[in-house]
Amino acid sequence: MADFLFAAAGLVLAMVAAGLARILWGPGDADRIMAAQLLGTGGIAALLLLGEATNVPAALDVALTLVLLAAFISVAFVKGATRSEADGA
Amino acid sequence: MSAALNGLTILAVCAGAFFFLAGTVGLLRFPDTLSRLHALTKADNLGLGLVVLGLLFQAEGLLAALKLISVWLLALLAGATVTQLIAHTARPSGPQA
Amino acid sequence: MAFDIGLALLVLGVGAWTVAARDTFAAVVGFVAYGLLLALVWVRLAAPDVALTEAALGSGLTGGLLVSASTRLRRAETRAVDERQPASLRLAAAVLCTLVSAGVAAIVLLLPEPAPTLAPQAMVNMAATGLGNPVTAVLMAYRAIDTLLETVVLLLALVGIWSLAPDRVWGGVPDPRHQAEPDGRLTFIAQLLVPVGILVGIHIFWVGSVAPGGEFQGATILAAMWILAMMAGLVDAPAVSRRWLRLMLVTGPAVFLTIGLTGFAVAGSFLAYPEPHAKLLILMIEIPVTLSIAATLALLVAGPPERAPGR
Amino acid sequence: MTEATLYGLCSAALVGVGLFGLIMHPQPLRKILAFNLIGGGVFLLFGAVARRGAAAGLGGDPVPQALVITGLVVAFAATALAVALLLRLFQETGRATLGSDG
After folding, report:
1. Domain extent at residue D32
2. Chain D residues with CB inside 8 Å of C85's CB?
3. Percent of chain C's residues with pLDDT above 90
4. What CATH number is attached to the domain comprising D52?
5. Do A21 and B90 touch (CB under 8 A)?
6. Which residues of chain A are within 8 Å of residue B52 when distances are taken between CB atoms?
7. Does any domain span residue D26?
8. How far apart are CA A8 and CA A20, in angstroms?
């Protein structure tokens, strides 16, 4: 079972890493933030699988932290983008 | 019993991995920002949800199960709302519908 | 092992992208991804406490800070686009950096065998503190002086930031007032996340005595939730000259210092805890320190005052 | 090769990559990013050393791990101060570079 979960963690991470190519292309900031968000959810899924495979229960707390902070970063982006418009006006 | 639970875990995790694949392909292939957002939210919600579901069959104790479900619910709700906010910045005039 | 090689290559790739990207915002997004992957690496290295800190602080709070800074600096950046260095200089720098990398790599490969470790001593002494998490025991007992100085460093950085305020807003409110969004999406997400986040933050602080977690990780989550509430317009940032705020900032280090000094009287040296009460004393330090750190971290993100102190 | 050695080598490469960015990028924000990249590499080196010191039923030596936690907090404080300085520079001059000719 552990081997399967481990392999699944690697698989999810590899696929999401391919999504990172989106960061390279852009073109907009929104695309980049989306790619990071996909990496975020994929990373969290990989982390949960990894934690179960290697028997690290604290991985759950790390995942909770990542979810909260990922939302925090996205909101910081939205506020920053609107503020930048206000600065420029 | 444990074999059946393991089977369910494998099934759900594989399905979850498939949705991550779909999300990645969508993100790479779809032509415009808003349809990419659409692809992304599917991957977010279903991929992570199925992985969480799969791991629930292995969870030891109520607290661990609760944390797993909270991770998914938070990702779901925060993801959906944040995606809408990002859609706003992608189109500064704001969507009309 | 294949997983580890893939993860290490991914970390390296994202790190290289952070340096190579032409666009600053793309580089910042790369950095956030880098932090997330590092959290995975820390789990692989059997350091869940560090993984939590990396997720909360190294990637999360730092990421938010850099994301908002880079979106604000957007307009300045377009002017600085083509400031490339000459090829000869790039080559020289590349050679230098390769040498540094090779040096560090050589150190890694030549590390002594068997590896020196303080783990057995840490385990033996952990019993005396009454704690169950060796990393927390090291932070709060064996290396308590580091932890005390660290809380002071945070305050000094905050003083530095506040001193950047222009005269007319001296002692004022950091951050412009955020209007609640008319359609309420941001308000909704904040009302949802903030209470859950506070709960998670307290949980991670509380389990820190027996399981991975602790004051810095918990405080970081609390700080992020405070900033989130400010950004959504749920609460306004306080004027930095407010007395309750100043008290909140210094209480933690002050209590830490007081208990440390009492150590001279009751246990013979600075920051020595009398044995039967060690756990209680550590908790008495940790609770105010956590609150102080949370407030300090949030205000570090909020930046220097930008509005005159209101009524 | 153990995973400690693998991630140790990874940390060595990260330090080099970050140092390159720190030297070559003219924009201060990129320098701040590169500084944090180097920080990640150095902390990872500590992590590799800690992993090698696994003993007494622990997966790693807790002392270097605790030092990394301290280091992460201090690195954050330094980053926040640097970002505040940079934003203030931008407010005053409308520029976010240090070049004398710009």
Report:
1. 3-93
2. 24, 26
3. 35
4. 1.10.287.3510
5. no
6. 48
7. yes
8. 19
A vs C, Cβ pairs < 8 A, gives 163
Token pair of C58 as six digits: 């190294």
What ipTM, to 2 d.p.?
A: 0.90
What band does D90 get if pLDDT is binned at 50, 70 and 90? confident
CB D25 within 8 A of CB C90: no
Instruction: List, in sequence order, the alpha helices (H) in C73-172.
Output: 74-79, 87-109, 119-129, 134-137, 144-162
The residue-averaged pLDDT of B5-28 equals 84
* Residue C31 pLDDT > 70: yes
pTM: 0.90
Residue of C nearest to D56 (CA): C120
Retrieve residue D66's tokens: 């605790």
What H or E segment, with its residue span, contains residue C306? strand C305-307
For residue range A35-88, list pLDDT tens digits in order.
Answer: 767 778 888 999 999 998 888 888 999 999 999 998 888 888 888 777 666 555
> C-alpha distances in angstroms, B37 versus B79, C29, C187?
11, 17, 21
Determine contact, residues C10/C33, Cβ cutoff 8 Å: no
Q: What is the pLDDT of residue A84?
A: 63
